[in-house]
Amino acid sequence: MNLKFLGASGGLGGNVSANNGSTCVQVADDILIDVGTGVTALNLQQMQKVRHVFLTHSHSDHICCLPMLLGNLFNVASTEQPVTVYGSHDTLEAIREHVFNWVVWPDMRELPSKEKPLLRLQEIEAGEVFQFGDITLEPFKTYHTVPTLGFAVRRTGRQTVFVADSGYAQSVVVNLNALGPIDDIILECSFPNELEDVANQSCHLTPALCDKLLSELAVQPRNIWINHLKPDVEQQIIPQLPSAWKLL
């Protein structure tokens, strides 16, 4: 696929794979999607190459390490190129109000100075296309308890679609079909089938709901990848997944 998962868990302490930190996806040396605890798979020098961070949504398992990542970049980013964090209006408002507020963390849009800040925020919308060399990213809306974006990543003729956190909804099917043929789709699967009521209430997926979503796509993806299992129920989820699906 076009992505490297540094963290693929729906929590902490899971045993499914080595990617047991919370969500962090590396698109390129300088591009990340989300900054959960999985970012700690990078060493200091690798972290200092990051210049673009795309956020799916504002939940803590997807943003919790953003302040500390930025704290590792004072000696490089502020003098070369600030780090741009991309997100929806709602996500960036949450970041401004609840993270970079001088209480939880200093406002890095003002450090080391307002004239040359370490951080800049860029509001994005579904359907915008971002080009970085041979890499294209296109956000699309998913269905979650807060406004959430998934990302289609295209490179060398291959389309990888990271659906991010999402429950089942017809709108998600429509948005995925609009992307065209998908080589790799990454779906979350937070709960087992027995907890479908909880999944629906929290706008997450179960194996059965993943299957329902996939069955309604106009063209079936070539590869199906599963992530974001809640650690305390992962042993219930795994036997319910078709053998052709791959765990991250």
From TrEMBL:
SMART domains xrefs: Lactamase_B
Single GO MF descriptor: 3',5'-cyclic-AMP phosphodiesterase activity
Domain Metallo-beta-lactamase: 21-213
BP terms from Gene Ontology: cAMP catabolic process; negative regulation of glucose mediated signaling pathway
Full protein name: Ribonuclease BN, tRNA processing enzyme
Source organism per UniProt: Pseudidiomarina woesei
